[in-house]
Amino acid sequence: MASRISLTQYLVEKQREKGLIPAELRLLLEVVARACKRIGYTVSRGAIDGVLGEAGSSNVQGEAQKKLDVIANEALVEANEWGGNLAALASEEMDHPHPIPHRYPKGEFLLLYDPLDGSSNIDVNVSIGTIFSVLRLPEGVKEPAEEHFLQPGTKQVAAGYAVYGPSTLLVLTVGDGVACFTLDKEIGSWWLTVERMSVPEHTREFAINASNARHWEPPVKRYVDELLAGREGPRGVDFNMRWVASMVADVHRILCRGGIFMYPRDNREPGKPGKLRLMYEANPMSFLIEQAGGAATNGHQRIMEIVPTQLHERVAVILGSKAEVERVTSYHREQG
Ligand code: P6P
Fold this sequence. Notes:
By secondary structure, this protein is of the alpha+beta class. The protein has helices at about 5-15, 25-45, 65-80, 145-150, 220-230, 245-255, 280-290, 320-335; strands at about 55-60, 65, 85-90, 100, 110-115, 130-135, 160-165, 170-175, 180-185, 190-195, 205, 240, 260-265, 275, 295, 315, 315-320. The chain has two domains: about 5-195, Fructose-1,6-Bisphosphatase, Chain A, domain 1 (2-Layer Sandwich); about 205-335, 3-Layer(aba) Sandwich (D-Maltodextrin-Binding Protein, domain 2). Helix content is about 30%, strand content about 25%.
């Protein structure tokens, strides 16, 4: 069997052979990957170490935090604040960007993350994960502030996620395709197991929380009704449905075998454009999906072209197999 390459070798090759990434970014990604190993271990300990259940606090979204949300967030802060690669970091679990302590040097990158996505699944042992996105600090900025994070997804220099499931996987892009690494828990190495992930253009599998159907806007209702009509309906074929309620798990399935993931805007809270967060969920996942040949829109425009106005802003998400994303988006455009 050809010897596998490690995450470190993969990143060194991206740095050396393609000049794609600077050493500082390579080091940052290795630190994030190491923090994900630690988070995965803590998650796997579950009830043994008493890390399940509520933390007794809530995040900026007003959502009750799980103990593991707080632990995962702290693991990423502790791992990243001393390295000298970051100017600041932002998290779903922190109201404002976390500055790098003055005792440490600052770097040129901004790290954004959802430390533990899929929290509702933690206590029932369903796959969850960590999602991260990397931006550059704008030129000439000495003291990073929230406004410096507000860059469109097209400005991302790297993005990825770890999924803590039957295997612990790290899926990563630095703008040159999407690679998947599997954690060897015996020696702590991330081994490259898929060199270039690819989303098939067509699919017969969709992911949406169908319990919200009565709240959907007409284009989404039309699209899903057509899928449910199967071979007797306008699509002429049957479709399958999945909904894990962990974005990392649903998106990973799509990167592996295709599909469309939808968390559209709905009428439960008309003032909200969607449930998922733009900066540290939709943008990194959109970068990965596009790099793997898929598409990602909010129903009206490419997610990665949305210019953010708030760090924790939400967005509607329709991503995955290009033909299906384009169909749903066309239905929105037809509605005007
Ligand atoms: P619902 C998890 O809480 C999350 O942010 C995503 O990972 C997931 O896709 C979605 O929310 C699930 O939402 O409303 O189905 O529980």
